[in-house]
Amino acid sequence: MRRAAVVGVGAALALAAVAASSAEGAAAPGEEAGTRPMPDFLGRGLWQVFTRLDRRTRLDVHDVSGRDRRVLWPPRWEVCTQYPAAGTALDRRTTAMIGVVRKGETCPPRVREARR
Question: Could you read off the pLDDT of 11-47 as tens digits, one per residue?
């Protein structure tokens, strides 16, 4: 009896996951199928990039401080640059490029001027 309850709960969770993933891929009115607008990440934490972008979006994250550091722990980094710009339609062929610095550091002047 207990095993049947566990299997039933597992099946319900699997169905909920499938329903959520199929709803995620549905296009909103006025959008093409398979495209979503790029959110505005400037000044926000890198963790939001990973949580708000679709998992199928290609992502290139790099340190723009000039120190060429590896970005290993997303909660410690802040977004300075993003390409494409906010509002641009993303599809499966688009690679989102995100430039970051460690939290507490300021974006380099060359980067701040280039993004305006």
Answer: 544 544 444 444 444 445 544 556 789 999 999 999 9
Q: CA-to-CA distance for 98 and 64, rounded, in angstroms?
A: 9
CB half-sphere exposure, 6, CA atoms < 13 A? 3
Residue with tokens 């001027």: 113
Measured CA angle at 14 (ends 12, 20), to 5 deg: 105
The whole-model pTM stands at 0.65
CB of 54 within 8 A of CB of 24?
Answer: yes
From edge to edge, which strands make up the β-sheet containing 95-102?
Answer: 58-63, 95-102, 77-83
Q: How many CB atoms lie within 10 A of CB 99?
A: 22
Cβ–Cβ under 8 Å, residues 91 and 44: no
